[in-house]
## 1
Amino acid sequence: MIPAIFDYVRPSSLSDAVAALREADEEGKVIAGGQSLLPLLRLRLAYPEVLVDVSGLPELRGVRDDGDSLLIGAMTTHYEVIRDPLIQAHAPLLAAATATVADPAVRHRGTIGGSLAHADPAGDLPAVALAMDGVFVTSAREIPARDFFTDYLTSALEPDEILLGVRLPKAYTGWGFHYEKFHRTAQAWAVVGVACLVRRTNGEVAEARVGLTNMGPTPVRAYAVETAVADGPASRQAFQAAAQDAPDGTSPPSDLHGSAEYRRHLAQVLTARALAAAAGA
Amino acid sequence: MSEIAPEAVAEQVTPSAPDATAEVGRARRRTEDARLITGRTNWTDNIQLPGMLHVAFLRSPISHARIARIDADAARARPGVIAVLTGADLAGEQGSLPCAWPVTEDMVLPDHPPVAVDEVRYVGEPVAVVVARDRYAAVDALEAVDVDYEALPAVVDMERAIEEGADLVHAGEGTNKSYTWVFEAGDLDAAFRDAPVVIERRYVQQRLIPTAMEPRAVVCSAVGDEYTLWSATQIPHILRLMLATVTGIPEHRLRVIAPDVGGGFGSKLQVYGEEVVCLLLARRLGRPVKWTESRSEGNMAVHHGRDQIQRLSLAADRDGRIRGLKVDLLADMGAYLMLVTPGIPLLGAFMFNGIYKMDAYSFTCTGVFTNKTPTDAYRGAGRPEATFAIERLMDELANELGLDPLDVRRRNWIRHEEFPYDTIAGLTYDSGNYEAATEKALRLFEYDKLRAEQADRRDRGDPVQLGIGVSTFTEMCGLAPSRVLGSLSYGAGGWEHASVRVLPSGKVEVVTGSSAHGQGHETAWAQIAADRLGVPFEDVRVLHGDTGISPKGMDTYGSRSLAVGGVALFNACDKVIDKARRMAAHLLEADEGDIEFSGGSFAVKGVPGQARTLQEVALAAFAAHDLPKGFEPSLDSEATHDPENFSFPHGTHLCAAEVDTETGFVRIRSYVAVDDVGKVVNPLIVEGQVHGGLAQGIAQALYEEAVYDEDGNLTTTTMADYLVPSAADLPTFTTDRTETPATTNPLGVKGVGEAGTIASTPAVVNAIVDALRPYGVDDVPMPCTPERVWRALTAVRRGSAPPGGAPGPGAGGGLGSTEGTPGPGAGSGLGSAGGAA
Ligand SMILES: Cc1cc2nc3c(=O)[nH]c(=O)nc-3n(C[C@H](O)[C@H](O)[C@H](O)COP(=O)(O)OP(=O)(O)OC[C@H]3O[C@@H](n4cnc5c(N)ncnc54)[C@H](O)[C@@H]3O)c2cc1C
């Protein structure tokens, strides 16, 4: 299909962009790579009056070393994320998950900011940001990841708020990592995904972080699993036992690609696999 | 059972080494591809005509409803809108869309207006049409058309639809049954009486959505009383006749052009309402119009494929010999009968027996109306369904008897020395060699090695199990001998036409009635003509797909182009040579009987140096200064070929699939396809057809399904929900050929367009079931999604305990066999990402 009529602006300063959104009075929408927004417009599931293109804003560009954290600009494309040396050094989990997104054409256009702001629980990056306790830096404030994803396709961003980037702590540098994506075809979205970080000491698991993709209206942290594996053996048996808790507190959807029951089962199997891969077990 | 040394069998059918100078047999790259792939060509949507208006269709969002009222005033008032027409506005001129295949005399054939008038019967059925100055204005105006629907009960389930008192799709017809068609041969009762083994199964052929790369598009112009309609169609010739019949526009005033067409797979073998409406609009408005569909629109409104419920009973002896087969089908017609809707399942009627001998066979098919998109031809059309059934049953029989699936097949198949063979279904298979194709496939596949690995995984209780699937298929294609079509009440014949024009410069134009839409005719036809006429490949141009240029044809479907249209070309070339020989004899002052033609040159027998090339003869004929007595000054010739029989390609396909028993994920590890398509004109094109066919057949096994909810809403309208696999999801295919030439055409060719699709679906499902057999699983419904595989396992786990040695619930540690497979696709093919990419 083709979209309904809309206006388009491409401001070159952040203040102009915010002003344009404010002026649109909730009928405006930020557009970054357009890879999620344009399909919605084309299917006429969204009717914004103005698209505010943020690709001209310098504040949204680049990956910066900020001491304790990396600040990844919202306009950084998936393609750039996968290849960025700072991200590879300090957040390889993000690069690994991003490499599973869609296909090369989408990865060259789609951005990390758009993926996160879109707040699709089936998207691969929200669970990573959540697992890594990322902080969302916006034109107005900073929002911790656990407060950012509020509902299905809904974030804490106000209609006139622009995401500048996401701050990922360097605390996970050197941790074992793995993103386990289960999808039916190479280009399909995750039925379930598991983002996992493991810190090992003396052959044991010291601590772990586990984020789940598509196990509810928002990405979910599997805290029960994290607790169960902490200070335990890095064995497949232990991971399998701990992974039984993965579906706790989730409310996965039932759709064409899997029922809620199946997703709960998958969460267990995939979490065990992700933990094992991240721990090198 | 007679055993023949495999090597001896294989030698007879090894593809002939190509003659270095010959065009036929050469793996030429397709000359049309550069323009098709870059899109700098005549796709219908690329056509721009002066003053052209744009058309959009408002489609029903409800599967079954009465149209109480349509208010289009607001839409008409929108900027840029030229006209908004409802079904009622068009009622006087739109007619009813044709069905050319009344399969029984009492078939129920409901009226099918291109735009619904009082009732809608499927989601996606047109209810109004907007014409505007541009496409945006047209699509925007759709939202301003206000329709009041009074919902009627939706008929969604075929089995319930034929129960007494069921809600009706067409209330006026009093039934949801369109027809029941029966075929019987041999004494079925005798075959089943006291049969030591009877296998009974119910298989579902899910509904599929043909997904051509190019969506449908139509452009139509009216100049005076001359109409030209461009359409992304497979059938310009049939379409022209049908449009003339439906609209009353005289056939000779209507020209239909299929410009470059980006795939069809049967979906463009249709007379669509949109085509009729565009023609009517051009006539009403006196201006050219264009309509191009969107993908999500197409998913609802392009006819669908498959959708059958099969009840099957097979009787056999203890040694595995088949005694009889009973097939009882319900075939979903959808809401209306379109061009060949009712006949599609019947194309399978002659194929359920496959390559096997048996004493008795019975086939019954009931066509059922439902409130869904109409079904019709989709790659293979009836034959994939039949092949699936028999090839799945052969595996079930093998399992029942504790035999290797290949042994059961060997005990039943027609042996190569038995050809030509009259089958139980009444066809005569002219040629084939199932032994040779199978032996070759087994060698390429490393069958024994994979069986050993399978046994090992079973012993270890590996959570990733290996299954091996066999499909030894044949198909009837090259549609079709006209007398056979007549006996099946089909509305037309099955001939094909070709003409050859030798231009004064000696260049050659080949005109074919086959209508290529991605198959590579422009290359293959030029190869045939170049060889036959002895002219360079580059000197031949192939014209097609335009009733103004190629006035006669039966178009492209049913793997018929080469086996029927290629033969017509071959015959037309021979007529050119006959004429040219006479002319050459005259020029050389020799007796016609002394003229020898070879390598494009006519020479006098035994007189070296005395020769004329075809080009010289063509120029002389053009000048016409000096002609033989009574000779018409032209070498141009034409031929219409009606095949004496179908062609019967066959092959052996072997699939090895890894099944992750924890997630249900299936990964195809290796796939071997050895096909026998007779003589080959261009091996590269054959290879391409096999690859694409395999992808489509595997897609039915694993990925694709048109899903309707209980209210009749199609839920798979986008490609995020209707999963079409890409190369990334498919293994590297191993393909090879054996070659038993067809004996019923001079080229020795059989069709190849559908072979891969027909063969591969059962090979994949057989592999999955084979992997899970030790758990007690004997079927997984298609598509075998991970969840369905997991559920099949869960169901048997909840039931009885698995047999000894097989991994039980939760056995194996639950992590899959991920050893030594780094990065994406860790063992179970899950595309997991370890480490930075
Ligand atoms: C075929 C296909 C397959 C895909 N498969 C996957 C997949 O497997 N996994 C996956 O994770 N994703 C997938 N995607 C989505 C892809 O990752 C998108 O790139 C991403 O979701 C959106 O990024 P974008 O820059 O294109 O954002 P846009 O589409 O431009 O915007 C998306 C949303 O975010 C908002 N937005 C964007 N930037 C900002 C900002 N700076 N501040 C505030 N709001 C903002 C927009 O207003 C909009 O609501 C797929 C997309 C396609 C087309």
## 2
Amino acid sequence: MLEIKNVHKAFGDNQVLKGVSLKVEKGDVVAILGPSGSGKTTFLRSINFLEKADKGEIIFDDIQADLAHATKKTISLIRKKTGFVFQNYNLFNNKTALENVTEGLIIARKIPKKEAIEIGKRALDKVGLSDRYDYYPSQLSGGQQQRVGIARAIAANPDVILFDEPTSALDPELIGEVLQVMKELAKEGTTMVVVTHEMGFAQNVANHVVFMEGGIVVEEGTPKEIFSHPKEERTKQFLRRVVGYEDYSI
Amino acid sequence: MLDITVIWKTLGRLATRVPYTITIAFVSILISTALAILLSMIKIKKVKIASALVELYLSFFRSTPGLIHILLVYYGLPLVLKPFGIILDASGKDLYSIAALSLSYAANLSEILRPAYLSIDKGQHEAALCAGLSGFQKEYRIILPQVIPIALPAMGNAFIELIKDTSILFVIGLTDIMGSAKNIITNGLGINKVEIYIAAGLIYLVITTVGNWGNHFLEIKCQKVKKHQ
Ligand SMILES: Nc1ncnc2c1ncn2[C@@H]1O[C@H](COP(=O)(O)OP(=O)(O)OP(=O)(O)O)[C@@H](O)[C@H]1O
Ligand SMILES: [Mg+2]
């Protein structure tokens, strides 16, 4: 369904991505793990052109494009097939929760306002915010804001939703509510690519885990393969560090 | 002793110049705002050569007095336009005044607009694009509605400054409030100077008080909108 091939990206002379590829099938939940600075965010952002890769290819259903030289039209097409959830929520501060969700539907997708509001309410209901339609972002907790962010991403029913560390800006007690929503989405068969430091989510919800370090994919496989039988020394080291895993080699 | 009746009579005569003065200020406000938007856009988008020129423009106009701008425009503009076959004579004093105020205030206003625009975090720009909005829709629907309440009160203050600055246009012979006060003094062979300047001052006082009052309301309105940001 979605394939990204051989992405390269440098910031100045800092080569951040050195040929990253990823294949996503419909219904997949892909977790991307890796130490800070390994290029996870940059990779995710280059998929929907928030970052312009120096080299790379994207094949998204019937669209095929060069990540370095895509036309405006292709970029717009791919963005409409993609939802993005940001680490810092990035809600529109001048809009209510419901307006945050409907904005893209009405303005970009030309869905009639009435219908868009229905869709928006349904999306907010789904993330457990049926009582917060008319609240502004400043009136919501971090967890609630991120759930609006998720509702905004899912409302247009995109083919894939990209999550960039959706819980890492949250207070620990608010992480659960967001992960719960993501778990529900996964259960319904939503295709998701999630950059995360939540090992529990990667292990229990994802069906495919990618470990990145130093701008390359070091190892990928099922959660079991990665968490229980990692092959690469770097993966083992990482897991030992973040989860204190000692029993992975059983 | 001050002659109150002179003040009173002068007030009446100067009041007739208020509409003219306000018109010049108003047109200058419109042009300088449009120009400031253009200057800010060039700087924000970092347009190659243009942004260097804008930088030069801003540093000149922001670090030289308004009086210089007026004299330069009045004596300089005809020289600049002459090679293009446009011959300006010295009679269109209101046009020179508007040109000078517009150029001068565009620089000030752009230094209000640009930081206000840049205060909206990059994340909201990206989120708008991810939601499928085009560049223009993003600005129009998401960014500018947040920039305007931030910039407006400071712009209002600048507009009031601009109105007060019309008082130096008399140097090129504009018969605005100040220019006509000068004329009254000249025609009266220099008597009652103080009374006449007091009258002129009172007129400006009324105008700026009304302006400040309006700006105060604007500020409250903006504060209400901004509450959520
Ligand atoms: N806009 C940018 N300009 C310059 N350097 C950047 C930019 N964005 C990222 N980088 C650099 O690229 C490298 C990879 O960053 P990236 O954010 O992709 O890492 P990450 O794996 O997401 O890390 P984290 O887990 O901390 O979020 C880092 O060295 C970072 O400093
Ligand atoms: Mg990151």
